[in-house]
């Protein structure tokens, strides 16, 4: 069974345009992100848009030796399905490119559990209920279920956000499993969505070697340095559909 990671990337984000191309320690956040994903040992595919603004994504991905699939800017569900088809994936790990410090071991453990369950109707994630810091999120599901969602999902939010049709079980046929974590840190933001998120991630990478730290170590660092966590503690996560 071929399981691959598909990460969605576009530079026309509203809160912090071209955020993945911002740099820390001389590398773009997208490069940091792709390096962490490649450390899982799984195939990685960048799913970006056909918008000419995203041409630059190809150059970054090529340098990282990661293939790119280009599809609809707004219908991200069809973009993911296209990436899965082009790379003959049997199952998909969905992540987003605004997670430059995502822990490869956390993702790999989720994949191991999904394989062990041996259930093509299983949707497995670590963020159905928040126990990890934001920025460690992944979702895993079979390509067959992704294609079913692509064919049947009609709500705009389902098309834009890829997985609501699955994790809200609109088909009535999915089994949902959340892998929780007891290490704490659910209140922290290690995601890149606003200028204040950028300040924190830049400080973690530039001043504390964050690109070499795993999830537990990052949580311990933020616990020990509340002044760092305070940099983006006030940010409210955008709601589905915003």
CATH class: Alpha Beta
Instruction: List the secondary-structure elements in sequence, H or E.
Output: EEEHEHEHEHEEHHHEHHH
Strand content: 15-25%
Q: What is the CATH topology assignment?
A: Spore Coat Polysaccharide Biosynthesis Protein SpsA, Chain A
Q: What is the CA-CA span between the terminal residues? A: 36 Å
Q: How many helical stretches? A: 10
CATH superfamily: Spore Coat Polysaccharide Biosynthesis Protein SpsA, Chain A
Question: Can you characterise this structure?
Answer:
It is a single chain. This protein has 242 residues and is an alpha/beta fold. It has a single domain (3-188), classed as Spore Coat Polysaccharide Biosynthesis Protein SpsA, Chain A, CATH 3.90.550.10. Helices cover 38% and strands 16% of the residues. The strands form two sheets. It has a seven-stranded mixed sheet with strand order 5-4-1-6-8-7-9, with helices on both faces. The protein is globular.
Question: What attributes characterize this protein structure?
Answer:
242 residues, alpha/beta, Spore Coat Polysaccharide Biosynthesis Protein SpsA, Chain A, seven-stranded mixed beta sheet, 10 helices, 38% helix, Nucleotide-diphossugar_trans, Glycosyltransferase family protein, transferase
How does the SSE layout of this entry go?
Blueprint lengths: L2 E6 L14 E2 L2 E2 H10 L5 E6 L5 H9 L4 E4 L4 H11 L4 E6 L7 H14 L4 E4 L13 E4 H10 L3 H6 L2 H4 L7 E4 L16 H14 L6 H10 L1 H4 L13
Parallel strand pairs: 1-4, 1-6, 4-5, 7-9
Antiparallel strand pairs: 2-3, 6-8, 7-8
Helix pairs in contact: 3-5
Put the structure in a nutshell.
This protein is α/β, with parallel strands linked by helices. The chain contains ten helices and nine strands.
